[in-house]
Amino acid sequence: MSREILKVSGLSMRFGGLLAVNGVGLTVKEKQVVALIGPNGAGKTTVFNCLTGFYKPSGGTILLDGQPIQGLAGHQIARKGVVRTFQNVRLFKEMTALENLLIAQHRHLNTNFFAGLFKTPAFRRSEKEAMERAQYWLDKVNLTEFANRTAGTLAYGQQRRLEIARCMMTQPRIIMLDEPAAGLNPKETEDLKALIAYLRESHNVTVLLIEHDMKLVMSISDHIVVINQGTPLADGTPEQIRDNPDVIKAYLGEA
Amino acid sequence: MNRNLKSAFFSALLVWAVAFPVLGLKLSIVGINLEVHGQGPFTLGVIALCSVLMFLRVLLDKQWSAMMRSRRDGPLVPPKVSNWLTLPKTQRYIILGLIVVALVWPFFGSRGAVDIATLILIYVLLGLGLNIVVGLAGLLDLGYVGFYAVGAYSYALLSHYFGLSFWICLPIAGLMAATFGFLLGFPVLRLRGDYLAIVTLGFGEIIRLFLRNLTDITGGPNGISNIEKPTFFGLTFERKAAEGMQTFHEFFGLEYNSINKVIFLYLVALLLALLALFVINRLLRMPIGRAWEALREDEIACRALGLNPTVIKLSAFTLGACFAGFAGSFFAARQGLVTPESFTFIESAIILAIVVLGGMGSQLGVILAAIVMILLPELMRDFSEYRMLMFGALMVLMMIWRPQGLLPMQRPHMELRR
C-alpha cells in the first residue's frame, strides 16, 4: 500500500486532573480504513476531538502529510481535508437536505458579496455547480426524493447517510466517522459498508472510524487500534486483534 | 374555593397597590413646594371598579377559562391561511404592494403624515439592519444604536468641518459604521448569547459617552447643529440657495413650497429602505446567508465542515452596522441636528423590539412592526401621559398572543428541480 497520510504519536489529553487520553499513537496510510475501538469511556471520541481540532491536545504530535496540525482550530483542520461526523448526528435540522449539502461547499463557492448581489454569470455558474454536486451525492446516498425535506424530518438512518454525504461535499482526504452504524438496522449497516467501500474506491478517501459493531469493524477495516482507559492496548490487523488475549479480556469479552 | 378567595382578594389589593400611586396621586406645585394631592372621586371610582373586576376574574378563574376554551375551538386564523401568509412568495407580493403605497403616499398625505412616514422608514432601515444580526445570524446585539450614532456623527462632522455633501457622506458613513462593527466584532464575537448582549450594550454606551465628552470636536452635549440637508443633484430645497447653488423650485420654475423638502426627504428614506430590502433579499439566497442560518443552528457542525465561525459572524455584524450607518447619516441630515442624547439605550431597545415584534428574520414583519411601533405612540397622543403606559401594555399583550411575532417568515428554501 501507499504512503502514510496521518501519523499520530504520543497523543495525550488532560482535563484538569483527569488524563483522558494517554500516549495514543496511530498511523494511517492512504486509502486505508482504520478502526478505533474500545469500551465506552475509553477516550475514542476524545481522540477524534483532538484530531479534528475541537480540543487542543495536551501533548503529542499529529502529522498530516508530514505537516503538524495539532493545535489548529477546527475549521482550519477541516480545510486541510480532515472532516468528521458526530456520534449524535449534527445536521442543520431546519434546513433541507439539499441545503445541508450546499453549506458544506461554502468554501468552494463564489462568496463574493457583489457577485451574489448582482447575480453575475460567475455566481450563477458556481451555484449551479454546487447544486449538481449536491445532487450527485444525494443520489449516491439514496436521498434524492427527500432533497427538499428539512433534515430534521428525515428518518434516523437517512440522517446518518446525509451527514456522510455532507462530509463528502467538502472534498475531504480523510473522513472520520464516529459510530456511523449506531442505531442502524442490519440492512442499513450493510448499505453503510458498501458506502464506505465506495468512498474509498471511487473518491480516494481514507476512513477512520469509531465503531462498536464488531462484525462491521472486522469486515471493513485494514487496521484496528484498541484503546482502553485512554491508553493504547493493541494495534494490528483484524485477525491479530481478534486473537489478542488482552483485547478479548478488556473488550470483546470471553466467549 | 377558599384558596381562590384568598388569591382573588390579594389580586384586588394588588390592583390598588399598582394603580393608586400611578393614577390616583398627583403632584402639584404650590408656591415653591411640591404637594401630593389625591385625584378626584372619578379616578378612584375607576380603580375601585377595576379591582372588583379583578377580584371576580380571579375568583371565577376556572369558569372563565372554561368559557374561553369553548368559545375558541379553532385558532383565530385557520392554519392554512397563516401558513400561506408566512410563505416568502406571499410576503414578497405584500411588500410590493406596500412599496406602491409608499411611493404614492407623499403626494396625497399631509405634511405631518409624510414626516412620520419618514421617521418610520428610518426605523424600517434600522430594523432591517438589526434583523441581519439578530434575526439571521442569531447574535443578540443590544448596542446597535452605537453604529447608528457613528453614522450620524460621520455625516455631521464631515459636513460641518469639510462641507462635504450628503451623497458623498452617505457611503462614507456606512463604511465608518461598518468599520466600527468590524473592529468591535473582532474581539467580541467569540462570546455568545447573554455575554455578547452585555458587551454590545456596553459598547453602545461607550460610543455615546465618547461623543458627549469629546467636546472640542463634537460639541459635547450640545451636539452639532445646522447640518446640511440632502440635495437633488445639487439643487437645494431651501427657499434661498447658498452661494453657487441653485434651488429646486427655481430650476424647475415652481412656486416655493416647503412640503417639497419633506417629500424629498421621504423619498430618500424610501430609496435607502428599498436598497436595504433588495440587499437582504439577495443575501438570503447567497452562500453567506445560508451560512448565517447554519451557524445559528449548529456552530460545531459548521466548524467541522471548515466554515470559519468568526468570519461569518463578523460579516453579519459588519453588514448590520453598515445599514445603521446609512440610517444614521440620513437621520442627521433630516434633523439637521445631532446630539448624543438621540442615541441612548432606549433606541437600541426600540429597534430590537421592532425585530422581535415583527417576527425574527422576516422583512415584512420588520416593516409592519416599525409602522406599529412608531405610529402607535403618535396616534395615542390624545392620552397624553398614559401613552407610554398603554404602549407598554400593548407590547405585553402582543407577545402573549403572538410570541412568534406579527408576521414570521419561512426562509426561502433552495429547491431541487426535477
UniProtKB/TrEMBL annotation, chain A:
CDD domains recorded: ABC_Mj1267_LivG_branched
One Pfam family from the record: BCA_ABC_TP_C
Does the entry feature the keyword ATP-binding, yes or no? yes
**ABC transporter domain location:** 6-254
Q: Which GO terms describe its cellular component?
A: plasma membrane
* One biological process term in Gene Ontology: D-alanine transmembrane transport
Q: Name one GO molecular function term.
A: ATP binding
Write down the InterPro entries for this protein, in alphabetical order: AAA+_ATPase (IPR003593), ABC_AA/LPS_Transport (IPR051120), ABC_transporter-like_ATP-bd (IPR003439), ABC_transporter-like_CS (IPR017871), BCA_ABC_TP_C (IPR032823), P-loop_NTPase (IPR027417)
Record keywords, A-Z:
Amino-acid transport, ATP-binding, Nucleotide-binding, Transport
**PANTHER family tied to this protein:** CONSERVED COMPONENT OF ABC TRANSPORTER FOR NATURAL AMINO ACIDS-RELATED, HIGH-AFFINITY BRANCHED-CHAIN AMINO ACID TRANSPORT ATP-BINDING PROTEIN LIVG
Please give the family membership noted in the entry. Answer: Belongs to the ABC transporter superfamily.
Record NCBIfam families? PRK11300.1
What name appears for this protein in its UniProt entry?
ABC transporter ATP-binding protein
Per the UniProt record, the source organism is Pseudomonas putida (Arthrobacter siderocapsulatus)
Q: Which gene encodes it?
A: livG
TrEMBL record, chain B:
UniProt keyword Transmembrane helix, yes or no: yes
Source species, domain of life: Bacteria
Q: Does the keyword Transmembrane apply?
A: yes
Molecular function (GO) terms listed?
branched-chain amino acid transmembrane transporter activity
Which keywords, in A-to-Z order, does the entry hold?
Cell membrane, Membrane, Transmembrane, Transmembrane helix
Q: Which GO terms describe its cellular component?
A: plasma membrane
Major localization listed first in the record, in broad terms: membrane
Record-linked InterPro entries:
ABC_transp_permease (IPR001851), LivHM_N (IPR021807), LivM-like (IPR043428)
PANTHER family (alphabetical): HIGH-AFFINITY BRANCHED-CHAIN AMINO ACID TRANSPORT SYSTEM PERMEASE, HIGH-AFFINITY BRANCHED-CHAIN AMINO ACID TRANSPORT SYSTEM PERMEASE PROTEIN LIVM
What is the recorded name of this protein? Answer: Branched-chain amino acid ABC transporter permease
